[in-house]
Amino acid sequence: MNIDRAVLAFAGSVVLAGLALGHFVNPLWFWLSAFAGANMVQAAFTGFCPAAMLFRKLGLPAGNAFR
Fold first, then answer.
1. Angle between helices 50-57 and 3-24 (to 10 degrees)
2. Is residue 31 within a helix (H) or strand (E), and if so which, with residue range?
3. 47-51, 56-60, 62-66: segment of lowest average pLDDT
4. From the CB of residue 45, how many other CB atoms can be counted at a distance below 10 Å?
């Protein structure tokens, strides 16, 4: 698994967790999904992704999007 796939898997997990928590626990959890979505949009334009930096430090190989 490279950094790109790890970022996509992590972002998808955060979105799904926010939706599930918002539905079953408290609607304020929907903000977690909104934050993850906003972070994905800004990463698409700027190339800056904190999750990618974390995965790089954990030793995952570089992909095409986040180097």
1. 120
2. helix 30-46
3. 62-66
4. 7
21 token code pair: 């928590």
Whole-prediction pTM value? 0.89
Side-chain half-sphere exposure of 15, counting CA atoms within 13 A: 12
- pLDDT tens digit sequence for 24-46: 999 999 999 999 999 999 999 99
Nearest to 32 by CA among 51, 12, 46, 49: 12
CA distance 8 to 49: 11
